[in-house]
């Protein structure tokens, strides 16, 4: 793995309706992310936070059932340009959210650099909605669809190309809350999903082994997009859209360790930490623990 790493904070909370996830990057920094990575001998450049503009009004559903479209677009445009530049300079981008709408910008900046980018989407949700299928109008429920070229053109066309990702290069891990439109898309497009059902049946070791081997065969780079709500809310309470019956702390560490050993990752993001809903920064600390395992921390 690339030893030079750039950290980009994205204090975005406009892709959903609960405030507080904009404080995620600070909470993850306070929990010691830089120190953890420096101890693992990475050269870290903390690029600070991307600017996020304020919403126009409180309930801001804009054209096509999209909340805060303009602000979410602008922030993702900037993020995409930054990620693009870091990868061009051979630095590993580690993006800290913020709500999951920021994956739109991360993927736009990343996918440019690969013929066949793979994506591991570690999440309770599929985030495969569009304005038409979304029950909420929240753009954080849409980024994976946007990366497939499905959704508002302003979002799908960031950095002037679409789609960003081939659906067959996507593996979702931890899903347990999928909307009807998302299930249709998964079937039609051939997205691989390890829902909690498969994880319970096969166990995390097999799920990760299969995912890693599958992506290794067909991709030339892999992005990890980890939504903390993939974990069980008993263990990671500081998230805006908790869903019970999630992945444990231990399963998640194992997944990160297996990814680390496989050495397939070329970029990563950790999203949806909401300090207001958290319990003494527990969820942010969990994110830092997972980041440690992902980048090579060993128990012995
Ligand atoms: N990144 C997330 N936490 N997404 C939650 C999405 C929830 C729901 N599927 C929606 O579209 O509104
Ligand atoms: Mn989620
Ligand atoms: Mn998500």
UniProtKB/TrEMBL annotation:
It holds the Pfam family Arginase. One of its GO terms (molecular function) is arginase activity. Pathway: Nitrogen metabolism; urea cycle; L-ornithine and urea from L-arginine: step 1/1. One of its GO terms (cellular component) is cytoplasm. InterPro entries: Arginase (IPR014033), Ureohydrolase (IPR006035), Ureohydrolase_dom_sf (IPR023696), Ureohydrolase_Mn_BS (IPR020855). It catalyses: L-arginine + H2O = urea + L-ornithine. Mn(2+) binds at residues 100, 123, 125, 127, 227, 229. Its cofactor is Mn(2+). Its EC number is 3.5.3.1. Coiled coil: none annotated. One of its GO terms (biological process) is urea cycle. It comes from the Bacteria. Gene3D superfamilies: Ureohydrolase domain. Keywords: Arginine metabolism, Hydrolase, Manganese, Metal-binding. Binds 2 manganese ions per subunit. Belongs to the arginase family. This is Arginase.
């Amino acid at each position: 793995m690339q030893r030079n790493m750039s950290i980009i904070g994205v204090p975005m909370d406009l892709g959903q309706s609960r405030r507080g996830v904009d404080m995620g990057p600070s909470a993850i920094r306070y929990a010691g992310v830089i120190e953890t990575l420096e101890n693992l001998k990475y050269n870290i450049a903390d690029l600070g936070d991307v600017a996020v503009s304020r919403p126009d009004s409180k309930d801001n559903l804009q054209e096509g059932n999209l909340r805060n479209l303009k602000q979410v677009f602008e922030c993702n445009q900037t993020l995409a340009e930054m990620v693009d530049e870091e990868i061009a300079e051979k630095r590993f981008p580690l993006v800290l959210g913020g709500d999951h709408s920021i994956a739109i910008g991360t993927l736009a900046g990343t996918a440019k650099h690969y013929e066949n980018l793979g994506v591991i989407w570690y999440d309770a949700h599929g985030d495969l909605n569009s304005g038409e299928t979304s029950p909420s109008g929240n753009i954080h429920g849409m980024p994976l669809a946007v990366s497939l070229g499905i959704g508002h053109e302003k979002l799908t066309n960031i950095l002037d190309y679409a789609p960003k990702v081939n659906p067959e290069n996507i593996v979702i891990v931890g899903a347990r809350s999928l909307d009807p439109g998302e299930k249709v898309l998964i079937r039609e497009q051939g997205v691989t999903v390890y829902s909690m059902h498969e994880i319970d049946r096969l166990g995390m070791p097999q799920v990760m082994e299969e995912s890693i081997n599958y992506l290794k065969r067909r991709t030339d780079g892999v992005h990890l997009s980890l939504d903390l709500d993939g974990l069980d809310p008993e263990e990671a309470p500081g998230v805006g859209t908790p869903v019970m019956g999630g992945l444990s702390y231990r399963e998640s560490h194992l997944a990160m360790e297996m990814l680390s050993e496989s050495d397939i990752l070329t970029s990563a993001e950790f999203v949806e930490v909401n300090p207001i809903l958290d319990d003494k920064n527990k969820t942010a600390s969990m994110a830092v623990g997972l980041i440690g395992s992902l980048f090579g921390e060993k128990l012995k």
